[in-house]
C-alpha cells in the first residue's frame, strides 16, 4: 500500500476495524470468506495476508487452522491484529514483502491494490506475491469496481454533492478516485484491465469472482443479512452468477484468483 499521510490519517481513525463487521459491509465479508474457503488449500496452509488491516480475515483463517501472518503499513492495524489468536502481524509494504522466495502457500492482497494508483506499483505488488508463493500456490487479490463510487454515491445519497459527483465521474473515466470524503486517493478497476496486470506479473490465467453482485445496492440488504435463511438464499444466488463477465463490474468488489504454475 502507498502509505501517504492522508491514508495513514484516515486509517488511524480506526474506521477499518468495523467496516466489514456491521451493516451491508457484512456481505463483502461473508462473500470473501465464502470464495476463499472454496479456493484455498486445506489447512494448515501458510497464508500471508498482505494489507490485512486489523485482521478481519486473518482471524477466521487462523481459526480454520491456517498459519497466518498479517502485514499492514498502518501501526494501529498491526497492534490490533497482534491481539488475535493464531495470528502474527508486522508492518510491511505489498511492493517489498519481507519474506523469502517461495515461502508461503497463499498470498492475499485484499486491500493493497486499492491504494496503488500507478499500474507499475500494482504489477510490482502482484509480482512480489508471485515471488513469495510456492509453485502451485495461490495469489488472491481484491479490487474495487470502476463504477462503484457512482453506485454507492447514489445509494447513500451523496451523489448530489457536486464535489463527490466530479470525483466519482473521474473514477469511472480513468480509475483514480480522489475522494472528498475520505481524503485519500484510491484506484478502481475496470474488470477487463485486471487480467493484463496479472499477466505482466507472471500469471497468464486468472479467475474472477464478483462478490456482492447488485445486491449491495438493494435498500433492504441489511434485512436479508440479518435473517440466516434469507442470507443463505442470497449467497446461493450470488454463487450462481459470481463469474458472469457482464455482471462483474456491478459488484462493489471483485476477487481475482491466480495460481503460480512454476
UniProtKB/TrEMBL annotation:
GO BP annotations, alphabetical order: methylation
Domain of life: Bacteria
Transmembrane parts of this sequence: none
InterPro entries: Methyltransf_25, SAM-dependent_MTases_sf
CDD domains per UniProt: AdoMet_MTases
A GO term, aspect molecular function: methyltransferase activity
Keywords: Methyltransferase, S-adenosyl-L-methionine, Transferase
Any single Pfam family the record assigns to this protein: Methyltransf_25
Domain Methyltransferase intervals: 47-137
Name of this chain's protein: Class I SAM-dependent methyltransferase
Source organism (scientific name): Nonomuraea zeae
